[in-house]
Write a structure and sequence with these properties.
The structure holds two protein chains of two kinds.
Chain A: E1 13-15, E2 22-24, H1 50-70, E3 74-78, E4 84-85, H2 87-96, H3 100-130, H4 136-149, H5 155-166, E5 173-177, H6 179-197, H7 201-209
Chain B: E1 6-8, E2 15-18, H1 23-43, E3 47-51, E4 54-58, H2 60-69, H3 73-102, H4 110-120, H5 126-141, E5 145-148, H6 150-168, H7 171-183
Antiparallel strand pairs in B: 1-2, 3-4, 3-5
The chains are: A mainly alpha, B mainly alpha.
């Protein structure tokens, strides 16, 4: 750690979460929260209850990840026949249809990315709570990557939406959504909220304190 | 700081301030183009599907409406939010903030509008939607004849313009500008 570098928090400043304006930090009183003079959003030195909130979203996402993968997300019917597909069996169908690139994209976006987000954020949270002080830069980069790739796991939900509105020919061909899709959509939203409520500066704070 | 340079966090290396040239004019131009493509991408169908002489097409709003109709309303709302509402509010927000700034006018609601549009950015998933359309296209191709329609091109153009509008914008400069206006 570079001892010359003092954080804004230690120097008594706070940055606005919305517009990044740095202001002198005043602890909020009971009836008044401190607000950003530039954009009027509530200012905190660190995101409030970041660790608790992130854990809560992550646990909810982990629980829903099970029905998201075991229940069918959609059923494609041609001439009245067809089996319900889960996310993984959908990937297998794409592989069987000789579409390995698309199969890999779907597999990554729908299966790997949610796991990476849940495991990655859990490690980051544990690293704060255990007060690790190594690989701070790498861990911050890991967080930023999680934040950026997270939205791509919405892919399967959007594919279901496109397919059911495109294929509506009754007994000839039809596509219907399955309950797994709802669970899957919830996982995506919950992991995005988890990443949003995580404050990477806490890792640096924890490293300084330890 | 000189134009074209940026400032990085000394701890984690994240870009803090990116000093861009003529950012507001460029961003406004792209946002205006994005508004046009938004309308076109929502009017024209993206894909078509033919089976036994019958043809079906789909638009962005169709998927959301079908999900709601079949009882999957939380997913329908999610598709509506990520595919239509969030992009619409981002484009509208950019125009709402950048037009007065370009005309050197000010309004007390501009900081709030800019704050909302920044908060909505992760929820606009047109790029993911585009990939979804490609996946749907390939998935159906072995079932029967599937075609890309003109709406698909408009969606590509829309994504390009929104991305360019946001990337061209120097948020630090704009916030400083908005702050200066409100202080007067």
């Amino acid at each position: 750690m570079n001892a010359v570098l003092q954080s804004a928090k230690d120097a008594g400043y706070a940055a606005c979460h919305a517009c990044n304006k740095v202001t002198r930090w005043q602890a909020p009183s009971l009836d008044e929260q401190s607000r950003c003079p530039r954009c009027n959003s509530v200012v905190h030195q660190r995101k409030p209850d970041s660790i608790t909130r992130t854990w809560a979203y992550l646990i909810a996402a982990t629980v829903l990840y099970i029905p998201a993968n075991t229940l069918p997300v959609l059923t494609v019917l041609k001439f009245g026949s067809g089996d319900p597909d889960t996310i993984l069996s959908g990937v297998q169908v794409l592989f069987a249809d000789d579409q390995p690139i698309i199969a890999l994209i779907v597999f990554t976006a729908s299966f790997v990315v949610p796991i990476l987000k849940i495991v990655g954020l859990s490690i980051l949270l544990i690293s704060i709570q255990a007060g690790w002080n190594s690989k701070l830069r790498d861990r911050t980069i890991l967080f930023r990557s999680i934040e950026i790739i997270g939205r791509w796991s919405m892919l399967d939900v959007l594919v279901v939406g496109i397919l059911i509105s495109l294929v509506r020919m009754g007994s000839l061909a039809s596509v219907s959504p399955g309950p797994g899709a709802t669970a899957f959509g919830a996982v995506v939203v919950l992991t995005m909220l988890a990443a949003h409520s995580f404050d990477p500066r806490l890792m640096w704070d924890a490293a300084e304190d330890s | 700081m000189q134009q074209g340079m940026n400032a990085k966090c000394s701890r984690c290396g994240c870009i803090l301030v990116d000093n861009k040239s003529c950012s507001i004019d460029h961003s406004l131009a792209y946002a205006l183009a994005a508004a046009v493509f938004f309308v076109l991408a929502n009017i024209y169908p993206l894909l078509s599907f033919n089976i036994e002489g019958r043809e079906g097409t789909c638009r962005i709003i169709g998927g959301a409406m079908q999900l709601v109709e079949r009882g999957y309303w939380p997913l329908g709302i999610l598709v509506l939010l990520t595919g239509i509402i969030a992009p619409l509010l981002i484009i509208a927000g950019l125009l709402y903030v950048l037009i007065p700034v370009c005309m050197r006018r000010s309004h007390p609601s501009l900081p709030l509008a800019f704050r909302i549009l920044n908060g909505l950015r992760p929820w606009s998933m047109l790029d993911v939607y585009l990939l979804g359309a490609v996946v749907a296209f390939i998935k159906l191709d072995d079932l029967s004849e599937t075609g890309m329609r003109v709406g698909f091109l408009f969606l590509c153009a829309l994504i390009l313009c929104v991305t360019l509008a946001i990337n061209a914008l120097d948020t630090h400069k704009l916030w400083t500008h908005l702050e200066g206006e409100s202080a007067q």
